[in-house]
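Amino acid chain
________________
===
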Amino acid sequence: MNITKTILRLKKIDLNTIFKFPLTNQMKTLFEFPENLFEQFVEHSDEKTKVESSILSLLNEVQPNTILNIGAGLDTLTNSVSFPKTVREITLLEKSSNYSHSYNGKKVIVVNDDFEEWESGHKYDLIIVSHVLYYFRDKSKAINKMLSLLNEGGIILFVVHKPKGVYKYIKDAAFKGNYEYSYDKLINILKNLGCHTKEIQIECS
């Protein structure tokens, strides 16, 4: 089975660079963060726009018929004018109902469930896993489950942030460590499975 995993790895400016002087761990603890810190960061960053643009570019290149978007969140992808018309059906899997207002369209199937618990009776040409892998309890099991849901020659598109820098630091502060950074573990799992990978780095600000 020829399965390609594309990894969009985000590159961020380091926190020390932003403040123009080295920050010790003791100094970093002095910063107080609001509860909606991460939302504010994403709102003022071009990360979401650039990632979505890269995903749309890949979709138009591959032209899949069926897509599964795991942890879809707020759906701006399928509403984009660049969303490929070749897509016959896209399943938005999101356990939170907070984003339901953004889910529309004849091609859209909405599933409110946890991926690790969800049972699918379908297979897909392409699976999107954007900033979601961090939260899976058993990452190896989750990835193997994704592989089982792919059609022959299918693609899994992972989006993860880099090991160090502003994105990870803010995520750590906002979620108080309730997630696990996944890039290295992802690479090792895919390598052990003998999967072919292609990595694309995106410069964000």
Observations:
- The first helix runs from residue 15 to 19.
